[in-house]
Amino acid sequence: MRALLINPWIYDFAAYDLWSKPIGILTIAAHLKNAGWEISFIDCLDRFDPDLEHYLGKPAHTTPFGNGTYHSEEIEKPVIFEKLPRKFKRYGFPLKFFLQKLDKEVRPDIILVTSGMTYWYPSYADTIKILKKRFPDTPVVLGGIYASLCHEHAQKYSGADLVYKGSDIDKMLREICRLSGVRPVGNIVHSGKPVCPDYTLYPRLNYATIRTSIGCPFRCTYCGWHLLDRSYSRMDTGSVVAYIEYLNKKLSVKNISFYDDALLYEADSHIIKIMEGIIKKNVAANFHTPNGLHNRFMTSDIARLFKKCGFVKPRLALETSSDVKQRETGSKTTNDDFLKAIGCLRDAGYGSGEIGAYILIGLPGQQIAEVEETIRFAAGHKIRIFLEEYSPIPGTADYIKSGMPENADPLLHNNSAFPLHDTAQSREYQRIKATIVTLNKWH
Q: In principle, which of 22, 92, 216, 335 could form an S-S bond with 7, CB 3.0–4.6 Å?
């Protein structure tokens, strides 16, 4: 049996590769391969594809740590955004290059397409339309974030034969069996042992993304991860260390990004053991925390291990310095927690320019003055600031507060476009962004 797996483009006003890899579909690939399937994989966001570099006539833009900008092409802007004064683009493979990739593919028995942000759905629909035209007799399954959070919308507009909701791998694998006619079903379902993303599917791997846990034990009002993974569980630390060692020593990966939602939670039984294992195995890599770290769980011991392991430019999740807003959004942190975390990292040897903090802008009911005060608070401690624009996520408490209709077009979830419907507010956002650029130059 042969499966073709696709990670589609991004259609948006802006996109940046912050160590982004489709962990879910790569894990599905590992299960299928273990069951004897032949796997073909096309990642339209793979900046380092050797064929792409040859096609474009230049190497991918990248930083020393592996992140960087995608190739992009301007495309027609959706009508809903026609009044927004920004260019709308396809990020990733050029269309012609993607079609050339497909021309080389043997007819698969099933096609699996993953999805990311809900507001990128036009790219998923376009991808599936192309796939259905190229392989008209092969069933197409759409899974991932959009397929789960906007299930009915995806069923109506994606063009997939099956839109899979949720993260139950056993159930997903059974659906694959059913659609492709594999019998018996039991030969594909995993045994319960840890199965990690299959990064051997990439012709060149400049970084890897991992999640050592599923779900999140917290319920921040603006976050929707608990809607995707209803329960919280973690991988065995020994398995995590072995996998990291494999990535580093067998696949020569020098940059590894942790995308856990609560990496420091119950650290003694998890991340500390992982870091101690990394040190013991002499893993030589840079580690990254793009999701933001919980301030209250940072300790001097964790910070020292971070430094010893090679964690680069750790990012803290401040979100807001307003104690009222902190409590309203789930009591994730306090300002004292934040200052303690900075102190721990500095004592461990991180300079001011190496420590970053995420600040949210555009939360329902949030005033510009609150954002400016948060920026002053963070900048006063001489750390880098990363501004995160609020995106309304269906099913979350803040989605209702945002005033977004329940059946709104998912395009309106876009964190870039959401604040731009208010011209005055848009000008304020641009002014704040310019201020942060200046502040970060100082650090």
A: 22
Residue burial 290-314, b: 16+ Cβ < 10 Å; e: rest: bbbbbbbbbbeebbbbbbebbbbbb
* Percent of the chain surpassing pLDDT 70: 95
**Beta bridge mates, 356:** 315, 384
Predicted confidence (pLDDT) at residue 421 exceeds the cutoff of 70: no
Phi-psi category of 86—alpha, beta or left, where left has phi over 0 and alpha has psi -120 to 50? beta
What mean pLDDT do residues 244-262 have?
96
Laid out side by side, the sheet with 162-163 consists of 38-43, 2-7, 110-113, 140-142, 162-163
Considering the domain delimited by 2-187, tell me its CATH architecture.
Answer: 3-Layer(aba) Sandwich (3.40)
- Note whether 2-187 and 233-252+260-394+412-441 share their fold: no
What fold characterizes domain 233-252+260-394+412-441? TIM Barrel (3.20.20)
Confidence of residue 419 (pLDDT cuts 50, 70, 90): low
Contact residues for 402 (Cβ-Cβ < 8 A; gap 6+): 364, 390, 392
Closest CA to 287 of 300, 299, 274, 296: 274
The yes-or-no verdict on residue 170 having pLDDT over 90 is no
Q: Which residues contact 246 (CB under 8 A, 6 or more apart)?
A: none
Is the pLDDT confidence value at 10 over 80? yes
Residue-level pLDDT at 215: 87
Distance CA 296, CA 412 (A): 33
- Chain centroid, CA 308 distance in Å: 26
Query: How many residues does the structure list for the chain?
Result: 443
What are 71's strand-pairing partners? Answer: none
* DSSP output for 245-269: HHHHHTS---EEEE--SSTTTTGGG
Q: Measured between alpha carbons, how far is 300 from 279 in angstroms, rounded to an integer? A: 17
CA 435 to chain centre: 26
pLDDT digit string (tens) for 99-158?
999 999 999 999 999 999 999 999 999 999 999 999 999 999 999 999 999 999 999 999
Return the structure tokens found at 45.
């966001």
